[in-house]
């Protein structure tokens, strides 16, 4: 008797590279090669400054969370869109820098900026739609798009223009099925901060193409160069903006997973009852961050002193300067644009000066194995044969790590004197 075979449909998982995935593989490579004289591992790969003691959250934030937790008032479910007082605090915080205020109803509290990304792409996606993403950029966007069967089209950022958006490319890529263009400002992975004029030009281009702008401002206000941070919501009357952000970077609490998605659309171009209901229903699926964390947000936002932010900015400016100066000592690496904000910089890798290094991934794996330094290959953020270096680190650790990178490059140099 013939046995029926049960047919199962194999579920395909997107093969997109993720930052955590590739850094995990690099770390495994270190662990597999460790010997008795192994060096201390220094990671300049992940944008988590809390790994270093010089970056820590304000004591007030810790106390606010402790107080809300010990009050026993916030152990239950919160509304899936977020606690009312949390939404209002975020709306008030963002409205400080906007010509037209956003209301609490425009704010949706998410489990970090990553969930805000997932929410934005999910509510906008439909069969046959596409989205424009920056290259280099943050790979979670492409991964989320792949799960939603949303076609990704990449526009280039221009290193010779301070990583500005190639607006001509945006225009050539967009069509009637393009739902949005994503911008990240201050930039991850490039460390750029866009000028008011360039942001206005982006909004005008989006308006011309009838696109929504998804503005990733997770590094909002972490600017220390010539351009001040200008939120994209300033131009919400030109083109509708979905602003994504979080407490993670500015308050140095990435593990708290407290983010937001905010509609900046004073003209009501997209903020229809149907659109709002779609967001609410998606929030019902996802849930949000812990209720007691949400309850602490008003106090954290309203009472954190400006001196805390200034200290963080000064530290990042100092470590970015160290990073750039040390890179100048390594001829096979070029910092094409000094970082103006965020916590990372893109560095160009000149393979012609190195022997037995095939590409940026090979460089990073061999560097980790030989020097116990972790940096991110550019391919992970869409730019082959570049490197992303995170400078949110202790100055001494940063100097030590980049000194090891210099030694590594000297050993792998073509020249006999050992200098690449």
TrEMBL record:
Aminotransferase class I/classII large domain spans which residues? 40-404
Question: What cofactors are annotated for this protein?
Answer: pyridoxal 5'-phosphate
PROSITE patterns named in the record: AA_TRANSFER_CLASS_1
Give the Gene Ontology MF terms in alphabetical order. L-tyrosine-2-oxoglutarate transaminase activity; pyridoxal phosphate binding
A Pfam family recorded for this sequence: Aminotran_1_2
- UniProt-listed CDD domains: AAT_like
What pathway is this protein a component of? Amino-acid degradation; L-phenylalanine degradation; acetoacetate and fumarate from L-phenylalanine: step 2/6
SUPFAM superfamilies per record: PLP-dependent transferases (SSF53383)
Question: Which keywords does the record carry?
Answer: Aminotransferase, Phenylalanine catabolism, Pyridoxal phosphate, Transferase, Tyrosine catabolism
Catalyzed chemical reaction(s): L-tyrosine + 2-oxoglutarate = 3-(4-hydroxyphenyl)pyruvate + L-glutamate
Checking PANTHER family in the record gives: TYROSINE AMINOTRANSFERASE (PTHR45744:SF2)
Q: What does this protein do?
A: Transaminase involved in tyrosine breakdown. Converts tyrosine to p-hydroxyphenylpyruvate.
Per the similarity annotation, which family is this? Belongs to the class-I pyridoxal-phosphate-dependent aminotransferase family.
Subunit structure and binding partners: Homodimer.
Protein name, please? Tyrosine aminotransferase
- Organism listed in the record: Platysternon megacephalum (big-headed turtle)
